[in-house]
# Entry
Amino acid sequence: MSTGPVSLRPAGHPPVQKPRIGVLLMNLGTPEGTDYWNMRRYLKEFLSDPRVIEVPKAVWWPVLNGIVLTFRPSKSGHAYKTIWNEERNESPLKTVTRAQAEGVARALEERYGAEIVVDWAMRYGHPAVAPAIQRMKDQGCDRILLFPLYPQYSATTTATANDQAFRKLMKMRWQPAVRTVPAYSDEPGYIDALARSVTRHLEGLDWTPDLVLASFHGLPKLYLDRGDPYHCFCVKTARLLRERLGWPEERLRHSFQSRFGKAEWLKPYTDKTVEELARSGVKKIAIIAPGFSADCVETLEEIQGQVRDAFMAAGGEKFTYIPCLNDHPDHIAFLTGMVERELAGWIGAARKAAVAAE
# Structure
């Protein structure tokens, strides 16, 4: 008469974790504080990445260490200080990314129990990617899905986030199997969530914008010339959003922000565009940032501060910023759906493996 499951492992065999699946949400990064040295550490890691700065090291290194890291930390620190989450003592990007991971984790736990482990990390700064992958491995994850939270693919974002995960994997004796989530610039669920966010926001105003501007993070034009597809994905997102809203072409336009240095970047530039709009008679505008999955210094300080000021100074009268999707239920549902789609074939296999390991 059977008294229960019989272990097939020999006596003295070390404990074996039940196989699980890991999901790692990855965003760009954040400094740990707004002071000079925290900002300097963050900027040095970020601006030392050859995926971000495609300039020969012999040329860029003296500029970075001799000029940029001398003066930029104080300026960037001031910008971060204006939007800092004082309650948690962290940047809004960290606050929102954590909330996104927690939201996706709750949704997956409701459907799959403890089979899936959800964690989050930053490409630059903390929490770092490598420790997150190790935590998943320690919890029995023999399959990991990497999810860079960048709707529009670029080598400077999606690729470098995955690179960082692969660097950790290269050092692991027992690697988990890995998949990566593709960029989602034209996913219907993403476009629908953006459209609903626009509609909700505009319905809450007591005025109607003459125009909505979709502002994406900029990129040096040279990167486009070398084959980076980011520009095309941004333009497509803006077009699909406009079509989903049922608007004519003149009601929603696109632009690019956050340029750095003297080189030509993707055009039209957001700051120049809002100035030209104001001078041409457009007095009321709304701006949305569809390239950001979470609000951050580029949206909360740059758009709501610098860009707004540029528009008003040029003769604008009404300005509003439409927040990122952040951890809104629409966004959590979309992210969860993307995870489930990309885990196809893994979820059931992990469950069977867990049973067999008992």
In short: The CA atoms of residues 138 and 251 lie 51 Å apart. Residues 57-83 form the longest helix (27 residues). The chain is about 50% helix and 15% strand. The two ends are 19 Å apart (CA to CA).
